[in-house]
Specification:
By secondary structure, the chain is of the alpha+beta class. It has a single domain, classed as Alpha-Beta Complex (Creatine Amidinohydrolase), CATH 3.90.230.10. Helices cover 27% and strands 24% of the residues. The chain is built from four helices and 15 strands. The protein has a five-stranded antiparallel beta sheet. Strands 1, 2, 4 and 5 form a four-stranded antiparallel beta sheet that branches. Helix 3 packs antiparallel against helix 4.
C-alpha cells in the first residue's frame, strides 16, 4: 500500500534526509586511495551517530554492514571489507540510509577516486543527471512510469545498460515501501502520483550490458561483463510544485 505522509512525518523525513546528506558529504572527503571499504563503513557509522540517528541498513535483511559499498563493476549491496582497498582510478558507490526518530532516508553516491577513465567519469555524471531528468516528472498527476520513462529516454542515447533487476521504491517508516519505481519504461502506467508521497529514486546504470548477477557472498551484485556501474539516489517528497529532494545538501 502506498502511504500519504502527514506534514509531521515529512518533517521527520526531512531531518533524516538532511543527516544523510551531511554524512554523504563527509564520506566524500574521507574516500581516498589506501582506505578499505570497512574503514569507510565505520567512518559513516560514526558520522550518523553524531546526529543521534542510526544506520537504516544495519542488519536490514541481515546485511552485514552499515552502508553498502560497491566498487567498479559492483553495482549495489557491496559488503564492507577489511580486505577491499580503494585504489586510484576506482569508482566507489556508497548507498545507505538514516533512521531518525522512526523515519527513514535513503541515498546513494558514486565517487571518483583519483585518475578515473573519461568514459567512466561520463557514466557517473550521466547517471546523476538521469536522476534529475526523472525529477521533471515526479509531480502530482503523473504516473510512476513517467519517472522510469524519463530515465530511459535520457540514458538510451549513450548506449548504457539500465539495471532492471533492482528498482527505486517508496520510503517512510520503512526503508522499502510501495510502490516499486523502475528506472525504465514499463507497459503499466503505475499509480498516479499524489502530494506527500515519498520516494527513493535511484538510477543504476552500467557502462556495458544491463545484465547483473549476485556474487558468491550472496549480497554483492555485479555486472555480467565486468564493466563499471554507477548509482545515484535521493529521497524525495512530492509537493504541489517541484519535488523536494530531502537527502541532498
Amino acid at each position: 500500500m502506498v502511504t500519504i505522509k502527514s506534514d509531521r512525518e515529512i518533517e521527520l523525513m526531512r531531518d533524516a534526509g538532511k543527516i544523510l546528506g551531511l554524512v554523504h558529504n563527509a564520506i566524500a572527503d574521507f574516500i581516498k586511495p589506501g582506505v578499505t571499504t570497512y574503514e569507510i563503513d565505520k567512518f559513516a557509522e560514526k558520522e550518523v551517530k553524531k546526529h543521534n540517528a542510526s544506520c537504516s541498513f544495519y542488519h536490514l535483511y541481515d546485511f552485514p554492514g552499515n552502508f553498502c559499498i560497491s566498487v567498479n563493476d559492483e553495482v549495489i549491496h557491496g559488503i564492507p571489507s577489511k580486505d577491499k582497498i580503494i585504489k586510484d582510478g576506482d569508482i566507489v558507490k556508497i548507498d545507505g540510509g538514516v533512521n531518525y526518530k522512526g523515519y527513514q532516508s535513503d541515498a546513494a553516491r558514486t565517487h571518483l577516486v583519483g585518475n578515473v577513465k573519461e568514459e567512466v567519469r561520463l557514466l557517473v555524471e550521466r547517471t546523476r543527471q538521469a536522476f534529475f531528468e526523472a525529477m521533471k516528472y515526479a509531480k502530482v498527476g503523473n504516473h510512476i512510469n513517467d519517472i522510469g520513462t524519463a530515465i530511459e529516454m535520457y540514458i538510451e542515447q549513450f548506449g548504457y545498460g539500465i539495471v532492471e533487476d533492482y528498482v527505486g521504491h517508496g520510503i517512510g517508516q520503512k526503508v522499502h515501501e510501495d510502490p516499486e519505481i523502475p528506472n525504465y519504461a514499463t507497459v503499466k502506467k503505475g499509480i498516479k502520483i499524489k502530494k506527500n508521497m515519498t520516494f527513493a529514486i535511484e538510477p543504476m546504470i552500467n557502462l556495458g550490458t544491463y545484465e547483473v548477477y549476485t556474487d558468491v557472498d550472496e549480497w554483492t551484485v555485479k555486472t555480467v561483463d565486468g564493466l563499471p556501474s554507477s548509482h545515484y539516489e535521493n529521497t524525495i517528497v512530492i509537493t504541489d510544485n517541484e519535488p523536494e529532494i530531502l537527502s541532498l545538501i
